[in-house]
């Protein structure tokens, strides 16, 4: 081949590469627009399904004035003030209570700390008979029973920890109406596994003494929710067996899909729905870049706590793994912060001890995995720090929402680094929409422009509200410099495709090394257009591989780009 021929072909190839790059750029832009449109369409679809459901259930769309007046108004007000010690209702509480007392089934979506408990506890006290409350966690139940007992309300629980004596008392109260019992808490397992309990409940109902049924943390019914509990699936039996007993289902968060799902599963299609805003105006949301050096991350967290909370105000630090959680707690202690770890691998007594020490302010910080979750009722948690990102927007909303339940200003700080994405993606890979949910929160973390609060509104399909400078984006919106990293991204994708085509495996760090070598090799950044791996084939293995490649690409592109 002559020199001039080589040069000519080189020019042609370069021109073609430029052409391909242009096309890729256009395609990526189009893909971005399509993603946005897809999410808009999904929201519209959910809204359509919702209005269809409402049209089918004519009664739930009937506008009724749940504000009153009702015949029980003064008795309810008296109980609220003199038994519960609450001077006025919060948003929706009165309406929910009235709907329940009118005998209707009710679905309540109310943010953490909004005051859901009063919505079923007050009607339970006001109505004759016994109210059944299904709640997912022993600790949650214990807290509630303790609180009610302190108010002088006869509340009991029937769980594995109930003494024989109390069990006898409860069964007598259910069967014969003897003794004073107003509110009975059980876990969902009791409903699905104890025939004896169900038969006593049947007798109670038969005698007209079952006043209402409350399903707490109702999102656990839906496998689309963030805390699915298989035993919640069987709770539909309650409405089937006791159709005329009003049921109230309560949760802090439920997307439209979860709401539809749980209404179906609990057989309360004609329920009245009360949806309060997801907005927690007292929470300040911020995302910080996480160093790849773990010591630096702990240094920063310790500094944040010591500087912002010198009076040992309470906080939570969420970690990804049990090991990490023990290590971070130890390192915080070494930096002078009183911290204890909490995870599912610990002995129940040790776990309970840490929880109690933290609840009574003897421990400032609890460093936990996701298992430190539902049932945390501490109202004065001033900060929730995520040492690693959560697996979805919903989970993050729930976990960060444990801050500031007393309504006072509190902070939610999330440490994000792209390198944390693959370890989360391997955990959520087999969950319904697991990767999709993970990528939503990755977008939340990587966003340099969108108000954090508005991201929650969009996620829960709620109209936007003012943030009032209560997130890092709105408070410190500095100049965002745009850098075009598409060439890096293309190179990375081509590397991943090569790896996939040759059936190799690679960690994130190996990938970064490969990327650096490749960049050195070629001296400039071009896409290897000729070595395209075939991603076709509808078999599961192929799909799984493709999704792995996508998930790696998402983390590593950002890593190299940053
Ligand atoms: N109307 C009210 N006025 C003042 N305080 C209230 C009112 N209603 C409830 N509270 C208080 O607010 C706090 C939170 O209430 P509650 O525990 O019922 O919240 P929740 O909605 O169940 O939250 P979570 O989902 O986090 O469990 C409690 O201390 C409760 O006594």
Walk me through the structure.
Its cofactor is Mg(2+); Mn(2+). The strands form two sheets. A seven-stranded parallel β-sheet has the order 3-4-2-5-6-1-7, sandwiched between helices. A six-stranded parallel β-sheet has the order 8-13-12-9-11-10. With 562 residues, it is α/β, with parallel strands linked by helices. It has 22 helices and 13 strands. The two termini are 43 Å apart. It is elongated. α7 (164-176) runs parallel beside α9. Adenosine-5'-triphosphate (ATP) binds next to α5.
Structure at a glance:
This protein has 22 helices and 13 strands.
Ordered list of secondary-structure elements with their pairings:
Elements lengths: L2 H54 L1 H4 L11 H10 L10 H9 L4 E4 L6 H11 L3 E5 L3 H13 L4 E4 L5 H13 L6 E4 L1 H6 L1 H12 L3 E6 L20 H6 L5 E5 L4 H10 L6 E4 L7 E7 L4 H15 L5 E5 L3 H13 L4 E4 L5 H12 L5 E4 L12 E6 L6 H8 L9 E7 L4 H8 L5 H13 L5 H8 L12 H4 L10 H16 L6 H15 L17 H22 L1
Parallel strand pairs: 1-6, 1-7, 2-4, 2-5, 3-4, 5-6, 8-13, 9-11, 9-12, 10-11, 12-13
The chain binds adenosine-5'-triphosphate (ATP).
GO molecular function: 3'-5' DNA helicase activity; ATP binding; DNA binding; four-way junction helicase activity; hydrolase activity; metal ion binding
Cofactor: Mg(2+); Mn(2+)
GO cellular component, one term: chromosome
Structure characteristics:
alpha/beta; six-stranded parallel β-sheet; seven-stranded parallel β-sheet; 562 residues; binds adenosine-5'-triphosphate; disordered C terminus; 22 helices; 12% strand
């Amino acid at each position: 081949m002559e020199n001039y021929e080589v040069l000519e072909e080189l020019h042609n190839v370069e021109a073609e590469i430029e052409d391909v790059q242009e096309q890729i750029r256009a395609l990526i832009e189009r893909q971005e627009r399509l993603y946005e449109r897809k999410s808009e369409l999904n929201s519209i679809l959910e809204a359509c399904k919702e209005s269809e459901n409402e049209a089918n259930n004519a009664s739930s769309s009937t506008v009724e004035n749940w504000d009153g007046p009702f015949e029980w108004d003064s008795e309810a007000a008296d109980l609220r003030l003199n038994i519960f010690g609450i001077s006025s209702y919060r948003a929706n509480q009165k309406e929910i209570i009235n709907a329940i007392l009118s005998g209707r089934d009710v679905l309540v979506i109310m943010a953490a700390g909004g005051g859901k408990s009063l919505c079923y506890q007050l009607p339970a006290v006001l109505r004759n008979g016994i109210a059944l409350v299904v709640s997912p966690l022993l600790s949650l139940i214990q807290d509630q029973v303790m609180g009610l007992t302190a108010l002088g309300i006869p509340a009991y629980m029937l769980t594995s920890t109930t003494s024989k004596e109390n069990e006898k008392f409860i069964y007598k109260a259910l069967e014969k109406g003897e003794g004073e019992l107003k509110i009975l808490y059980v876990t969902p397992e009791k409903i699905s596994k104890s025939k004896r309990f169900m038969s006593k409940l049947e007798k109670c109902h038969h005698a007209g003494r079952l006043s209402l049924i409350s399903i707490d943390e109702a999102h656990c019914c839906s496998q689309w929710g963030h805390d699915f509990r298989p035993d919640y699936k069987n709770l539909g039996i309650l409405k089937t067996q006791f159709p005329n007993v009003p049921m109230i289902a309560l949760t802090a968060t439920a997307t439209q899909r979860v709401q539809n799902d749980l209404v179906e599963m609990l057989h309360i299609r004609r329920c009245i729905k009360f949806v309060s805003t997801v907005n927690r105006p007292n929470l300040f949301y911020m995302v910080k870049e996480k160093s790849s050096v773990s010591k630096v991350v702990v240094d920063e967290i310790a500094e944040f706590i010591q500087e912002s909370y010198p009076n040992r105000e309470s906080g939570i630090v969420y970690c990804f793994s049990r090991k990490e959680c023990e290590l971070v707690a130890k390192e915080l202690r070494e930096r002078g912060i009183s911290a204890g770890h909490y995870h599912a691998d610990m002995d129940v007594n040790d776990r309970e001890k840490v929880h109690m020490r933290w609840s009574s302010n003897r421990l400032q910080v609890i460093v936990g995995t996701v298992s430190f979750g539902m049932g945390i009722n501490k109202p004065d948690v001033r900060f929730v720090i995520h040492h690693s990102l959560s697996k979805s927007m919903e989970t993050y909303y729930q976990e960060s929402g444990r801050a500031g339940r007393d309504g006072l200003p509190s902070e939610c700080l999330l440490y994000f680094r792209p390198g944390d994405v693959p370890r989360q993606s391997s955990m959520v890979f087999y969950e319904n929409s697991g990767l999709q949910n993970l990528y939503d929160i990755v977008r939340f973390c990587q966003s340099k422009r969108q108000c954090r609060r508005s991201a929650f509104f969009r996620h829960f399909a709620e109209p936007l509200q003012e943030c009032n400078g209560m997130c890092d984006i709105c408070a410190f919106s500095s100049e965002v410099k745009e850098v075009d990293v598409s060439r890096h991204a293309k190179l990375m994708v081509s590397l991943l495709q090569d790896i996939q085509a040759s059936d190799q495996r690679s960690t994130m760090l190996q990938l970064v090394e490969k990327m650096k070598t490749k960049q050195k090799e070629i001296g400039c950044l071009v896409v290897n257009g000729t070595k395209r791996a075939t991603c076709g084939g509808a078999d599961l293995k192929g799909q799984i591989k493709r999704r792995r490649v996508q998930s790696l690409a998402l983390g590593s592109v950002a890593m190299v780009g940053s």
